[in-house]
Each structure stands twice: as structure tokens, then as C-alpha cells.
Amino acid sequence: MTSSFEIPAFPAPRLSDAERDRALSQLREGAALGKLSHDTFMRRMELALVARRYEELAVLTADLEARRGSDSPWSRRLFGWVGRASAVSVGVRRAWAAERLPKLLFPHPGAGPLRIGRDPGNGLRLTHETVSRVHAELSLRDGMWVLKDLGSTNGTTVNGRRVTGSAVVRDGDQIGFGRVTYLLSAG
């Protein structure tokens, strides 16, 4: 007789990209319809991205299942149109903000890494209270510019996304140190 811990366990089949995309789409639609708060939406998106089994996704979307009749082709088209229209407005808003941001020029390639922070010894000194003493570093590695967060308190961002570790940056990217944001420019 075998006990339950002796029964060989077989790994659950891996989630397909299509299943994960379907769950993410349901979460976005649920948030757009006001069925999820922003915090709940963000947490469920994080959980969906790390889910390993279909059952984990099903739990995240169970309360968002379409009611009978509400998933008609007409409603899908309407939500698709509204989604595209809101994406355009977000793009316009970002472009408008980008034009008004102060520019930060890339340093000369041979100058070495550029340290950024409140400390007077940094190559770029920012005096805003949300910027750490030694906040970030911009350097050229293998022909690519890399922005590295140096353990700042209020974070470093590239195009609105927080940098954990380092990120490749390009001309036109919006980079932020705490609540100070610049438009990165090659000159």
C-alpha cells in the first residue's frame, strides 16, 4: 500500500500563450467596464503573468465571465473601438508631455559612466527631494546606452516603467529619477 506522498507527481501541462493572452484580455476588459479596481486589476495582471497552470488563470477571471448575451459581436466591436480610441488618446498625451520635458543629452561616449543623483560628486546633480544621493548611472556598454538604478528610494523609470536593475535606453525615451523626468536626446 502506498501513501499519498509516494504517488508520482506529473507536472501540469504548461500554459499556452493564447490562454494567458485570453486571461489578460479578460482582465483588461473587466477593468475597462469598471468591474475591477485599479489595484485589483494590477495585482491580477501580475498573477496572470506568473501563473503556471490553467486553473490559476481561471481563478483570476472567474468573476469576469461574460453574462449571457453580453459577449455579442457588436459588443466586442464596440469595446475594440473604445480600446483603440483610448490608445490613441494615451499616445497623444504622451507625445504632448514629451515635447514639454527638459532634454537630457547622452554624455560623450568616451567619458565613462554618468552618475546621477543629489550628491555634489555626481556627473549630473539633481536637487529634487525625490532623487537619492546616488540615484542612477548611465553608461555605454557594447554600443548600447544602459541606465542602471543604484538602489534609489523613489525609483528610476524608462517610459513610465520602473527599472529594476538596468535597462537599455534610446534617443527619445522618457527617463525619470524620483519625480524628475527628462527626454533622452542624442543632441
From TrEMBL:
Keyword annotations: Phosphoprotein
Presence of the UniProt keyword Phosphoprotein in the record: yes
Q: Which PROSITE patterns match?
A: FHA_DOMAIN (PS50006)
CDD domains membership: FHA
The record's section on InterPro entries has: Cell_Proc_Reg/RNA_Proc, DUF1707_SHOCT-like, FHA_dom, SMAD_FHA_dom_sf
- Protein name, entry field: FHA domain-containing protein
Q: Check the record and name the SUPFAM superfamilies matching this protein.
A: SMAD/FHA domain
The FHA domain extends over 114-163
